[in-house]
Amino acid sequence: MITKTVQSVTEALQDVKDGSTLMLGGFGLCGIPENAISQLVKLGVKGLTCISNNAGVDDFGLGLLLQKKQIKKMISSYVGENDEFERQMLSGELDVELIPQGTLAERCRAAQAGFPAIYTPAGYGTEVAEGKETREFDGKMYVLEHAFKADFAFVKAWKGDAAGNLIFKGTARNFNPVMCGAAKITVAEVEELVAVGTLDPNQIHVPGIFVQRIFQGVGYEKRIEQRTVR
């Protein structure tokens, strides 16, 4: 029986090096790989390029890596909740590439599927398209966007089994699934790790073929980015 289980986050991230390009799943603070991010802080790896929908907040998520100045470049869609991110970007310490959210997702999905690039109408006629190939299809203009190339994808799932099959919950499904298999190595941390054959095959969102390592996560905070009450 194939098992992709590793015993800890330490083992899962043992070969992450300075200058790596990382994909990190999650939407806001929902479904982010908390254990992997904490381990990256402990490892002290520098010069990272991080591909993520957002950049966390000042004291949580990718904000922890920004505090330690471990990130060289952020490729993101939404970064409005992080004062340290703003400071580093405006000072020139941090290279930032802002991408329309759908384009970010599809560039991940293209990498997952083995496609080198996609055409998208998003950004045509704006500075997003500057220096990029454009082409007309059926009377509408599109911009060529290349698939991402990443060394590691770190994702967080609700449940997973030893073969790497994953089930996500709620908003965590926004970016985690498309990052699985989109990097050379995909590492999944899960709230509940079960034996192969336990999960209902009809409920699996990502098959284990897209995952190289899986481990049982611990100590999830699951913070709320902006709490609103009536």
TrEMBL record:
Give the UniProt keywords, A-Z.
Transferase
Q: Which domain of life is it from?
A: Bacteria
GO molecular function terms listed in the Swiss-Prot or TrEMBL record:
succinyl-CoA:3-oxo-acid CoA-transferase activity
Species of origin reads Formosa agariphila (strain DSM 15362 / KCTC 12365 / LMG 23005 / KMM 3901 / M-2Alg 35-1)
Q: Which SMART domains match?
A: CoA_trans (SM00882)
According to its UniProt record, this protein's enzyme class is transferase
Q: Does the keyword Transferase apply?
A: yes
Q: Does the keyword Transferase apply?
A: yes
- Record's protein name: 3-oxoacid CoA-transferase subunit A
Listed EC numbers = 2.8.3.5
- Which NCBIfam families is this protein grouped with? pcaI_scoA_fam
Which PANTHER family does the UniProt entry name for this protein? ACETATE COA-TRANSFERASE SUBUNIT ALPHA, KETOACID-COENZYME A TRANSFERASE
Which family is this sequence assigned to?
Answer: Belongs to the 3-oxoacid CoA-transferase subunit A family.
